[in-house]
User: Which sequence fits this backbone?
């Protein structure tokens, strides 16, 4: 037996995932340094708070996407789902506001959350029970949600009722001890999400399903339940983001949340979550969302590149992130 | 080692290929050192050794996939260096890989000629390729059509296509890397015939295998590797599988199997009546008694695995009745079965058993999360304790607690998988291929472990394609064929020939058994 233990190690894969773990934070630090060199205003407390606040809803949605993607799924519908939830919420609040006054706001939030969970349930059910590829299933619901918001707004805008505007305003523009509320909300979501993913049985199951569905099934894990739950978490996160986002927009339009799915998936992937599933990084995702917003901000602050090219730069980043993931696997 | 060299038989002919003090390091770690051997025309030279002994490294050095760190290769007495596999091929050395590396969507002919297509004026000449492929296949006695899609072929036929592909052109040395690992028992013989035919033609053959009985049948000489070093080269005459095992492991093996227990068996522990798994199992009934080790033999595809996948709700199935310790049960998922006390250890430990990229602790507790972590948050300290306990009780050898499951050797992966299933404390355990692809020392530990399970009052079903394993371990053997139970063997009737008979012939009469016993 002894010679089994002392058998010389053979050439093995390098399992280290250094980039996946520390990479996003190093990239963020480098970006801050570069930003300061380009324009010292970049590091002003005001600008930083602004940028991070703006990254908050992508961060919140991307945290939900971290669950979906690490469980081996994908959700392309998040952008139009956000628009749809915003529309439902505003219409509901405007309808009840004459009767209940500002109590319409918490009620509206509850409606948003329920709508988000229902949307997630729909996606999850189509993917698992309907056994349709996540890409196709959520491409379908993406179209459905987008058409519904267009229909609800009649192609125009649905603005939040004037009587509610002031009362709702602090949810996006307010702060606690100087920290903007959206930042606090996204931190809270991240803390809860990190706990769920790393420290609960569900987190273990989620990652196991993403790593190898067969192993999960043979281990007695209900793959269907785990997958649906991931989509429900995603729906709830989209709802939370929409709730924070309403005061800033003030209205729902057919273009609300357009191409957010690109930013969300980019944030998740540059955060170190494996796109094929089996590895999720909640804080990496948050860093990824902030990186994306920093880059957009830098492009605005500097004169090197037109800000119209922001989406192009983000597209390039997701491709680079995938290349790095692939290379770090070798 | 010096004693071993005295055994060298005086074979005719100068060596085609000779390795002189061949060594290989990877990043400062020596994986192979001081290996000296030669291969002569018309001889079958077997290389045996446990996993990690350096067999694969040696193969890759000889076939140009790796370059030696030290020592040299001589071909016909002249030093030669291969910088790429193509150079070794050009020199007449072919390697038949262990895994089947073929494009499933392409035809047999397209696969054989992939990368070296026959062209006419720059256009691919399909007809010439098909004809040449047919000739090549006929030469190794394979009747597959060159037009067939590889994806539609059986594993055995794919292996033959792969051999035809490797042998395209003229070859002086052919290296077979565990060619029978993916084959069922009855598919092995035709392959061995092909290898013997190559030998007759004067080809020098290097044969790597885990199956020592095959080595005994085929080899002229046997070189044993252990821990990257040469134990010696031996004349195959008079080298028994048991002696080979001892040389590989470095200690004497009294027996691979623990002595059978003399005992009274208890009540039925698992009772399956009229199991149907559409497409796989047709009306199977069996009873496992408390404290029994019941073997389930048969060829791959006989429905053994599917019977239990159906029982666990992994495949659609219907049952007349299933009783576990006398209580009627119906499982919709492996989780329900585990709660009732039935554990199933999959045959596919890499694909269905373990998360290879995950650490050991999450792997260990994956099937028993509710048991190990009773509260909302994970009990990581408790989990670490469980891992310590598993490492100790199952003798799992690892370099670090932070290792990934994929970094363990096959044997240690199997022990980890065993520990994982045992965390649910099953009273009835079904182990599918308990020792596939693992080395002898670990095999013998796993056999001893299975016996200790039944000594504790648990009951065990062992599904295996290795007949000796079932005969050495089990109290009783059921043989399945084409989805049915075709025979039951106990006591002295548990012989390889009887198992093979029931596994392959539709009506195995008492008379046939009788003849077999005497002939």
Assistant:
């Amino acid at each position: 037996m002894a010679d089994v233990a002392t058998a010389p190690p053979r050439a093995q894969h390098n399992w280290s995932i250094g980039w996946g773990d520390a990479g996003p934070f190093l990239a963020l630090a480098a970006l801050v340094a570069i930003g300061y060199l380009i324009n010292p205003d970049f590091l002003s407390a005001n600008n930083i708070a602004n940028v991070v606040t703006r990254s908050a809803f992508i961060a919140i949605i991307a945290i939900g996407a971290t669950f979906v993607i690490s469980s081996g799924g994908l959700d392309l519908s998040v952008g139009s789902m956000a628009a749809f939830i915003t529309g439902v919420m505003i219409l509901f609040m405007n309808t009840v506001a004459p009767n209940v006054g500002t109590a319409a706001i918490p009620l509206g939030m509850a409606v948003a959350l329920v709508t988000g969970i229902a949307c997630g349930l729909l996606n999850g059910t189509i993917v698992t029970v309907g056994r349709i590829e996540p890409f196709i299933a959520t491409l379908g619901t993406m179209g459905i949600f987008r058409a519904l918001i267009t229909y609800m707004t009649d192609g125009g805008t649905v603005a939040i009722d004037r009587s509610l505007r002031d009362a709702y305003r602090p949810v996006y523009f307010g702060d606690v001890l100087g920290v903007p509320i959206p930042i606090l909300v996204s931190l809270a979501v991240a803390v809860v999400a990190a706990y769920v993913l790393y420290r609960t049985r569900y987190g273990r199951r989620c990652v196991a399903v993403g790593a190898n569905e067969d192993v999960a099934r043979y281990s007695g894990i209900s793959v269907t339940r785990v997958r649906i739950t991931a989509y429900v978490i995603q729906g709830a996160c989209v709802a939370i983001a929409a709730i924070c986002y309403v005061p800033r927009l003030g209205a729902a339009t057919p273009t609300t949340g357009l191409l957010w799915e690109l930013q969300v998936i980019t944030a998740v992937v540059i955060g170190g979550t494996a796109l094929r599933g089996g590895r999720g990084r909640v804080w990496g995702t948050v860093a990824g969302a902030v990186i994306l917003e920093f880059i957009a901000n830098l492009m605005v602050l500097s004169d090197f590149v037109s800000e119209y090219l922001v989406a192009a730069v983000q597209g390039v980043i997701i491709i680079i992130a995938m290349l790095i993931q692939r290379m770090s696997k070798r | 080692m010096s004693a071993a060299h005295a055994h060298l038989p005086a074979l005719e002919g100068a060596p085609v290929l000779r390795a002189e003090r061949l060594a290989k390091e990877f990043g400062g770690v020596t994986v192979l050192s001081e290996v000296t051997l030669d291969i002569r025309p018309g001889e079958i030279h077997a290389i045996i050794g446990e996993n990690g002994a350096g067999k694969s490294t040696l193969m890759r050095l000889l076939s140009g996939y790796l370059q030696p760190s030290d020592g040299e290769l001589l071909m016909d007495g002249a030093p030669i260096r291969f910088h790429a596999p193509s150079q070794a091929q050009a020199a007449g050395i072919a390697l038949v890989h262990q895994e089947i590396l073929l494009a499933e969507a392409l035809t047999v002919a397209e696969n054989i000629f992939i990368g070296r297509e026959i062209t006419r004026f720059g256009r691919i000449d399909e007809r010439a390729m098909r004809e040449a492929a047919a000739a090549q296949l006929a030469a190794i006695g394979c009747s597959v059509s060159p037009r067939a899609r590889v994806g539609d072929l059986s594993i055995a036929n794919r292996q033959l296509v792969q051999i035809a592909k490797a042998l395209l052109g003229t070859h002086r040395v052919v290296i077979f890397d565990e060619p029978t690992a993916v084959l069922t028992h009855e598919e092995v013989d035709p392959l061995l015939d092909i290898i013997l035919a190559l030998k007759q033609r004067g080809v020098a053959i290097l044969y790597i295998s885990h199956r020592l009985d095959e080595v005994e049948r085929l080899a002229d000489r046997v070189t044993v590797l252990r821990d990257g070093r040469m134990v010696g080269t031996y004349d195959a005459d008079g080298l028994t599988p048991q002696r080979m095992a001892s040389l590989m492991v470095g200690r004497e093996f009294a027996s691979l199997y623990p002595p059978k227990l003399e005992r009274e068996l208890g009540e039925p522990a698992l009772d399956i009546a009229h199991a149907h798994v559409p497409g796989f199992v047709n009306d199977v009934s069996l009873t496992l008694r408390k404290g029994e080790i019941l073997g389930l033999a048969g060829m791959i595809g006989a429905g053994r695995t599917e019977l239990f996948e159906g029982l666990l709700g992994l495949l659609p199935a219907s049952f007349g009745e299933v009783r576990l310790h006398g209580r009627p049960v119906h499982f919709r998922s492996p989780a329900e079965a585990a709660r009732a006390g039935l554990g199933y250890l999959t045959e596919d430990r890499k694909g269905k058993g373990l998360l290879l990229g995950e650490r050991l602790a999450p792997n260990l507790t994956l099937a028993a999360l509710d048991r190990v972590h009773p509260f909302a948050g994970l009990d990581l300290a408790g989990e670490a304790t469980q891992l310590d306990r598993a490492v100790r009780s199952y003798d799992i050898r690892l370099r670090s607690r932070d290792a990934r499951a994929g970094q363990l050797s096959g044997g240690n992966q199997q022990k980890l998988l065993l520990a994982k299933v045992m965390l649910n404390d099953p009273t009835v355990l079904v182990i599918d291929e308990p020792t596939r692809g693992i080395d002898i020392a670990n095999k013998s530990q796993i056999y001893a472990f299975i016996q200790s399970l039944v000594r504790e009052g648990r009951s065990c079903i062992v599904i295996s394609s290795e007949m000796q394993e079932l005969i050495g371990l089990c109290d009783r053997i059921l043989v399945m064929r084409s989805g049915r139970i075709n025979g039951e063997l106990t006591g002295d009737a548990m012989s390889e020939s009887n198992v093979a008979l029931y596994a392959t012939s539709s009506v195995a009469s008492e008379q046939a058994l009788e003849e077999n016993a005497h002939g």
Observations:
- Residues 93 and 343 of chain B are 47 Å apart (CA to CA).
- Chain B touches chain A through 59 residues (CB under 8 Å).
- Confidence is low (pLDDT under 50) at residues 1-11 of chain B.
